[in-house]
Specification:
Strand 4, helix 2 and strand 5 form a beta-alpha-beta unit. This protein is globular. The protein has eleven helices and twelve strands. It has a single domain, classed as Metal-dependent hydrolases (TIM Barrel). The longest helix is centred in the middle third of the chain and has 17 residues. It is α/β, with parallel strands linked by helices. The strands form three sheets. The protein has a six-stranded parallel sheet, with helices on both faces. Strands 2-1-12 form a three-stranded antiparallel sheet. Keywords: Hydrolase, Metal-binding.
C-alpha cells in the first residue's frame, strides 16, 4: 500500500490535505549568511499562518547538511496540525565545504538510504524524499554523483526524487540521466522551479515523460515573473498534463517568511492560488494542491 512518509510516521496519502509541495521550515547555507531559517518559534508561527489559510501539509526540501533540524519537526507538526515531510539528499556543491563533501565520498547512497529507512541522525525522523540539484543548463560531476546516489536510494526504498533545477533549466538533461541512464521511473521524479524558466515547449517535453512539474516560489528580481506561471500551467493542462503539476512556496530566507514581512508559506494560498484559479479553474487548482501531491509523494516503501 502506498503511503506518505511524514515526520510523524507513514500516513495514507489522502490525509495530506492542501499541500505546499516545496518549501523550507528550516534552512541554512553559507551562500545566505544572516538569513538562516533556524528559529523554532518563527517556524511555528509560519506553519500556523499556513494552516490558517487552509494548508494541511508542507514538504521540506532541505537536504543533508543544510540545517534541517529534523528533531524539531515532529513537535512542530503536532503543535500546528500541519503534516511535514523531511528530505535527505544533497544540494549543489557551492552549499558545502570540502570536508563535508569529502566525508561523503563512497557512501552517499548509503547515507540517503539510512535517512530514508532509519532516520536522520539521532532524531528518529525518517526522510520521505531525496532532494538533489542540477546546474544552470548543465549537469556537472557533482550533480551526476548526487543523482546517481539518489537513484540508488530510490531503487532501494522507492523514495521519490525531487530536483532543484537551477533557474528552472536543465529539465531534459535531468530526465535523461535519472530516468534514462539510472532507471528511476519518471513518475517518481519531481522537477522543481519550472516557473523560473517558462519555456512551454520544454515543460511539455518533460511532462510527456510522466514526471511531476513543480511551480514553486514567487518571483524574484532575476526570475521570470509570476504572471507567466498561470499560462504555463494552463498549457500543460490543455495538453493533458494537469495531474502532474505541483505548487510550492520555497521559502529559503528569514526575510522571505511572512512573520518577518515577506510572502512566506501563506502567500501560496492567499495570492498564488486565486490567481491561478482565474486561469485554469478552481477544480484543477484543488487537484494540484491535494490529489497531485498525494500521488507524487506516496510510494510503496520497501
Amino acid at each position: 500500500m502506498n503511503a506518505v512518509r511524514t515526520v510523524l510516521g507513514d500516513v495514507p496519502p489522502e490525509r495530506l490535505g492542501v499541500c505546499d509541495a516545496h518549501d523550507h521550515v528550516f534552512f541554512a547555507s553559507p551562500r545566505l549568511p544572516g538569513q538562516e531559517l533556524a528559529g523554532v518559534r518563527a517556524a511555528r508561527a509560519e506553519l500556523t499562518a499556513f494552516r490558517e489559510q487552509g494548508g494541511g501539509a508542507v514538504v521540506q526540501w532541505t537536504p543533508y547538511g543544510l540545517g534541517r533540524r529534523a528533531a524539531d519537526l515532529p513537535a512542530l507538526s503536532r503543535e500546528t496540525g500541519v503534516h511535514l515531510m523531511a528530505a535527505t539528499g544533497l544540494h549543489q556543491d557551492v552549499h558545502y565545504d570540502e570536508d563535508t563533501l569529502a566525508a561523503l565520498r563512497g557512501r552517499l547512497a548509503e547515507v540517503f538510504v539510512t535517512e530514508l529507512t532509519r532516520g536522520i541522525g539521532t532524531s528518529g525522523v525518517r526522510a520521505g524524499l531525496v532532494k538533489v540539484a542540477g546546474g544552470f543548463h548543465a549537469l556537472d560531476a557533482h550533480a551526476r554523483w548526487s543523482m546517481a546516489a539518489a537513484a540508488e536510494a530510490h531503487h532501494a526504498t522507492g523514495a521519490p526524487v525531487a530536483v532543484h533545477l537551477e533557474l528552472g533549466t536543465g529539465a531534459l538533461d535531468v530526465l535523461d540521466l535519472l530516468c534514462g541512464e539510472l532507471g528511476v521511473p519518471p513518475q517518481r521524479v519531481i522537477l522543481g522551479h519550472l516557473n523560473r524558466s517558462p519555456d512551454l515547449v520544454v515543460h511539455r517535453q518533460a511532462a510527456e515523460s510522466g514526471c511531476y512539474l513543480a511551480f514553486d516560489g514567487p518571483s524574484r528580481a532575476h526570475h521570470a515573473t509570476d504572471w507567466r506561471m498561470p499560462d504555463a500551467v494552463r498549457a500543460l493542462a490543455e495538453a493533458g498534463h494537469g495531474d502532474q503539476v505541483l505548487l510550492g512556496g520555497d521559502t529559503t530566507t528569514a526575510a522571505a517568511r511572512s512573520v518577518d514581512g515577506g510572502p512566506g508559506m501563506p502567500y501560496l494560498l492567499r495570492r498564488v492560488v486565486p490567481r491561478l484559479a482565474r486561469a485554469v479553474g478552481e477544480d484543477l487548482v484543488r487537484r494540484i494542491l491535494t490529489r497531485n501531491p498525494a500521488r507524487a509523494f506516496a510510494v510503496p516503501w520497501h
